[in-house]
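An instance as discussed:

___
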Amino acid sequence: MLKVEELTYNFIAQFYDFEKDLVLTNHFHSDWEADILVISSEGFSHEFEIKFSKSDFKNDFKKNYQNAKTKEKFLKHDKISCGDYICNQFSFLLPMGMIEADKIPEHCGIIEFYHNPDSWETTFFEVRKPKKVHEEKFWNLVDKDLMLKMMARNYYFKKLELKGKREELILPPPIPQKK
């Protein structure tokens, strides 16, 4: 069975250039996480959410977030569809035929994939282009310096995990973030 990391690698390798685009995987920022986040050289962002099952797909529409300042609660896709979201575009990356296109909100792009286990090739089909939900550039909405620091920290922890050292080391509690 195709693993999410293999699908992610195949998708990025076919459609993006690391020398032109900032491509992040499993990127956490504030209160949201993107399976794939692409920020173009022009500063526009596109989030891709990978779904392997119908239940996982349905759960994406139940995700609640809370505004840190106002404590207002909202559903993720309500925010995306009205343009009050950090990314300019949002797409689902789904197995071929898993969800009918008319069951997916109009603001969402749909990219289906077919993985041939015999040849180990993965083919992608753009079913629907995403709508641009706003024109604001990503870097106008995000503190770039803070994001780079968070990415460096996350990279360091991932490196420890890959080396298997995190469990072996006795590390002090993390340094609290200044507000």
User: Anything to note?
Assistant: The mean pLDDT is 86. The domain at 4-140 is CATH 3.40.1350 (Trna Endonuclease; Chain: A, domain 1).
